[in-house]
Sequence to fold (129 residues):
Amino acid sequence: MDEKGAADEKRMRLRYAGTCRSCGADLPAGTDALYERSSKTVSCLSHGATSDANRLPHPEAIDPGVPGASARREFERRRVRREERIRTAHPKLGGFIHAITDDPQSIRSWSAGTIDRLDHVLASDLPSA
Ligand SMILES: [Zn+2]
Fold:
């Protein structure tokens, strides 16, 4: 193995949590990641030293310093939790409700009776488990 000229990055399992230097993603301890010895920084496996393009931030990466970023994260977190709640409460209907509306207000305004009726309508179309 000739290490000269090769990137001083190596793939390893992180012993400590870190942050990708390219996109800022959290890299929990135990994650496989690339470690750059010269700078003692880590990056996701998708960010090698192979090309400059890979060093560009992910388009969806959120800079923690940008105002509103935490609000957006909180929104995303709540959206996911809401979807999980719906799916848990209405296993058959969860995906359906989520598909027709992404607005918590309109879901809240649905009466239990409406959901029960829909449940029956859908159940009649579903093969019995
Ligand atoms: Zn990354």
